[in-house]
Write a structure and sequence with these properties.
Blueprint (H helix, E strand, L loop, with lengths): L1 H14 L6 E2 L11 H6 L4 E2 L6 H4 L5 E2 L4 E2 L1 E2 L5 E2 L2 H16 L11 E2 L7 H16 L8 H6 L1
Parallel strand pairs: 1-2, 2-3, 4-7
Antiparallel strand pairs: 5-6
């Protein structure tokens, strides 16, 4: 717990109000047994790989789970491809609509700045343009998700 609080304070010192109280754990994995530590250290948001844990978070902790990883780690650390990416995105959106996924969840996309290739970046550019033009879709920012 001390390390979480210390890290949070360091980020606040370095980045001021731009340092939002969100934890993105290593490898995007976070055991449910540690959720009480989040509240004690002032963390108000958790971003990890999608799980049923999101529904179990206390109301003062926003879930910002990831539902799609754009990197094929076991296949050259490259973009998974447009078809696989769209299948993952559409699958999560459909599951939310059908009540098969946590309805309060945003649809999260995991990017990796150190291994992002042109194909992955191009996919994100096209997705951003599509969302921008779509009347029923929009991007949510972190501060907005924390306030919800």
């Amino acid at each position: 717990m001390d390390e979480l609080a210390e890290g949070r304070q360091r980020l606040k010192t370095l980045f001021g109000p731009r340092a939002l109280p969100v934890l993105v754990p290593p490898w995007n994995r976070f055991a449910a047994e540690f959720v009480p530590l989040l509240t004690k250290t002032g963390i108000r948001g958790l971003s990890s790989m999608a799980s049923r844990q999101a529904a179990a978070l206390p109301p003062n902790i926003a879930s910002m789970d990831v539902h799609l990883d754009l990197v094929a780690w076991k296949d050259g650390r490259r973009f998974i491809g447009t078809a696989a990416a769209l299948t993952g995105l559409i699958g999560h959106l459909q599951a939310r609509r059908l009540g098969q996924a946590f309805r309060g969840a945003v649809t999260g996309i995991l990017t990796h700045h150190l291994v992002m290739d042109r194909a992955g970046a191009g996919f994100l550019d096209r997705l951003a343009a599509t969302v921008e033009r779509h009347a029923a879709a929009r991007w949510a920012n972190t501060a907005e998700l924390l306030a919800a």
